[in-house]
């Protein structure tokens, strides 16, 4: 089909030089696909190099501690990806003798591997003729064929997968899948694509009908919740502090943080001081409390906006199991807390 041939020709002339495109090793392809979920290539690339250097094989990743994996993942976000990555590595290394499943159907059984990732691995590693459908593919197909189906609907995935399968080059499925995703990432971008210099400008239905900016249709919007975090940084006479592990399900599971006071809104010194002295740290003699920065840090997640304030609380006694600044940096933290530590605002 002309669509497939033109697309592949464009790809071979314009593709980016990416390390996971130079291998058919399912471990490295799996690693890259998990990292690039909801993450830009430029952001994910350094993490891919770091992981493949530290864990050159799936067995190396399986043998590592979860804490080490989370530390290396620090800053990439969506930490459940890292935890699932680690558990799946252990399953492949210990239960499957280090051998990856070699088909789309079997890959789907792996924890943290959905239809998109399974299709990517099956296609790129084993050249299985199965279409890969992500946001880029939704966009390219909806515009080229003028498909007005709301991509937020559960039925949309099945419709677009069938369409991708219909136009996909069965002899070059791996190249086709790479090509259509790359085309969406570089040429058929979400906003203001350069349609005048597009190889499909004579056949794209959306361009002919003046609908490029209307497609794909996506009606569902994520409801954003505002939360208010006050991190309380204890400091004793030795300069040591206290941290805790987030063990409850939810954001930042199994990462570390300073003692947390969550409130219903942004609060000031009086509220923090009262709760710190009377409830959270009543066993210590507090000799000073101060806010570490004038402005509240707003950390935006996909479904939550966290309004974060940092407070330094000096105590007279030595903190039991206190941690110094050097050791502090070895723990996996949410990036917003790690950046705070790196800037040495702990010594504000």
UniProtKB/TrEMBL annotation:
InterPro entries: A/G_AdeGlyc_MutY, DNA_glycosylase, HhH-GPD_domain, HhH_base_excis_C, HhH_motif, MIG/MutY, MutY_C, NUDIX_hydrolase-like_dom_sf
HhH-GPD domain segment(s): 35-186
Gene3D superfamilies on file: Helix-hairpin-Helix base-excision DNA repair enzymes (C-terminal) (1.10.1670.10), Hypothetical protein, domain 2 (1.10.340.30), Nucleoside Triphosphate Pyrophosphohydrolase (3.90.79.10)
Cofactor: [4Fe-4S] cluster
GO molecular function terms noted in the UniProt entry: purine-specific mismatch base pair DNA N-glycosylase activity
Cofactor binding, per record: Binds 1 [4Fe-4S] cluster.
Record Pfam families: HHH, HhH-GPD, NUDIX_4
EC number: 3.2.2.31
Keyword check for Zinc: no
Keyword hit for Acyltransferase: no
Reactions listed under catalytic activity: Hydrolyzes free adenine bases from 7,8-dihydro-8-oxoguanine:adenine mismatched double-stranded DNA, leaving an apurinic site
Keywords tagged on the record: 4Fe-4S, DNA damage, DNA repair, Glycosidase, Hydrolase, Iron, Iron-sulfur, Metal-binding
Family according to the record: Belongs to the Nth/MutY family.
Record function comment: Adenine glycosylase active on G-A mispairs. MutY also corrects error-prone DNA synthesis past GO lesions which are due to the oxidatively damaged form of guanine: 7,8-dihydro-8-oxoguanine (8-oxo-dGTP).
The protein's name in its UniProt record: Adenine DNA glycosylase
Source species: Flavobacterium quisquiliarum
